[in-house]
Amino acid sequence: MKVTGRFAPSPSGRIHLGNILCCLLAWLSVRQQEGHMVLRIEDLDTARCPQRYARQMMEDLHWLGLDWDEGPEVGGSNGPYFQSQRTDRYQAALEQLEAQGLVYPCFCTRAELHAASAPHREDGQVIYPGTCRKLSAAQIAERSLRRAPALRLRVPEEEIGFTDGHLGAVRENLARACGDFLLRRSDGMFAYQLAVVVDDAAMGITEVVRGADLLDSTPRQLYLYRLLDLTPPSFCHVPLLLAPDGRRLSKRDADAGLEVLQGRMSAQAVLGKLAYLAGFHPSAEPASAWELLEEFDWDKVPRSDIRLPEHFFEI
Predict the structure, then answer these.
(1) Model confidence, pTM
(2) CB–CB of 242/215 below 8 Å?
(3) pLDDT per residue of the chain (315 residues) written in tens, 0 to 9
(4) I need a surface site. Which of 130, 243, 294, 302 has the fewest CB within 10 A?
(5) Residues taking part in catalysis
């Protein structure tokens, strides 16, 4: 079977170095296997992801020399390629889960979920305690008069495991790690976990390369693949690129954004430096994406997060 990978950026601003590294590794992995690359724009939150950011992101990928075989501007048989235009598919999947008796309304507010008394993981994420899991029909009707509910998926007291292509064996008990998780928010927006599963399956994605910050999402997604009777892809989670002080990079870090870097250096210079930090380019010298293809080796990519050296991208 031909490998099919994807870029799936969320266009809430200009891409930064961490986004570029992840896109580069995904592209190299697919191209090295002579596979097929899909671009999907994850713009479920249309208020945060206006069309102009999506257009800019595609221009940035072109500038970097990273292409795709299917998606916006290119077309293909699996469109549309904007999640905001695919909500009918998410609704159908939601109804399939509802028919299995696994979905229930949740009226908890954000403040209630993040209260000090609520169970939290070590990283600060909330573990949903099942507050609304056993509401009666009368309680649901009464609360619905005051607040539109979110929809949650019941999870089992069960370990779900997989072998990550880069990080090895991963196991997680959903009930203890996250609890019943969201499928649709109270404002009607579908949750990432549901949308990404539906879209990757529909687009025939066989390999997902993404940041290690999404590693703990994978067991939830594998559970959804099982419930929806869909075939999951293989997963490969890559190290995060951190600021020199150890902070995670974000689109708010203007100094690591492409709009600043483009004024200082060529696309080949950016890629060469990133590939050097990622362990498979012997120096920080400039190189095109196609030149890096000959050097790329998963075994050389670090398994722990990469901290940017001070002023490394200003040289």
Answers:
(1) 0.94
(2) no
(3) 899 999 999 998 888 899 999 999 999 999 999 999 999 999 999 999 999 999 999 999 999 999 999 999 999 999 999 999 999 999 999 999 999 999 999 999 988 888 756 667 767 688 999 999 999 999 999 999 999 999 999 999 999 999 999 999 999 999 999 999 999 999 999 999 999 999 999 999 999 999 999 999 999 999 999 999 999 999 999 999 998 888 887 655 555 678 888 888 999 999 999 999 999 999 999 999 999 999 999 999 999 999 999 888 876
(4) 294
(5) 251
Helices of type H across the chain: 17-32, 51-64, 87-99, 110-113, 137-144, 174-177, 192-202, 218-227, 258-261, 267-277, 289-292
Taking residue 44's Cβ as centre, other Cβ atoms within 10 Å add up to: 22
User: What does the block give as tokens for 81?
Assistant: 């390629």
